[in-house]
Amino acid sequence: MAFVAPLYLKAPMVVTVYDLSFLLFPGRLSAARRWYLRNFTALTCRRALRVLAISHSTGRDLARLLGVNPDNIDVTPLGYDGSVFRPLPAATIEQFAARQGLPARFWLFVGTLEPRKNLAMLLRAYARLPRSQRLPLFLAGGKGWMADDVFRTIEREGLGDSVRHVGFVPAADLPLWYNSAEAFLYPSLYEGFGLPVLEAMACGTPVVTADVSSLPEVAGDAGLCLPPEDTEPWTAALVNIKGDLDWREEARERGLDRAGGFSWERTAALTLDSYRKALAARGLPLDNQDSDIIPQAQPKNRTLSYSMRVEQELFMATMELMRQSRYHPGANSTFLGSSRRLRAERL
User: FRET label pair with 324: which of 16, 154, 155, 188, CA 20 to 30 Å apart?
Assistant: First the structure.
């Protein structure tokens, strides 16, 4: 289970926590699941030598909600594959748009349809636009907890002719969707990181997102960050981004520059630094010349879910960095998975 180490594991460990949505948005889980995650994530964090958080926001949440010592938290922001998420040739985008029946201009949301993504607010803000000011809005993502509320809002606001749900989008198609959209809208109430924001910027798509949790960390000054519970600024922003070509061009360039500061190699390096701190706390050497036992990275699977894609990319980048540095934390160490443990054989 993510965030939780086995109770029987007596060895010191390093654990990764992606977010604390199970505490901040508990309604999406059963009572038993909430109890399990709340208690055993806290226990694992107390036992761990180091706790990895994928954003400063999650790090603050760990200290505030679980009482984790901030000195034991290492922030390891996520990355993206620059060979995949990048501006694509116009001909490629045109061919994709023709296959999908896409209009020349549209706005895009990518994510699971659930209350935390705050789509009801976005739809209300969109509904306040005069019809002449609306671009078609495409919702790309599977149906999650309470997804029916999204469709009820579409019906209630009379948006059936301008809002389209395209369902789950395979990872291989995401760059095509980002490149095709005129702007990416992401009004989420809470994220551990906000990988879709980073991926959209890397594709050169202007971003409008919420000004809460980790999202401003990712968007920086490249994205337009707005309060997620107030429709008026979102309505005004939609009017402006539709009519302001100069802003869209500037946002594109700022987004590409901003995305350039993130990579899986950087994530892997920060993850290894955390392991080095854990090893140093045990007085163990930080290098090992026997690199033959480092696991071999497997070919990428482009059909994985969001969380599994994160794990796969980080695993591959970490393995490559370990080979280059000829460092590894032990033959039986586990890098793939939400709990990354330092095994007893090494410690």
Answer: 16
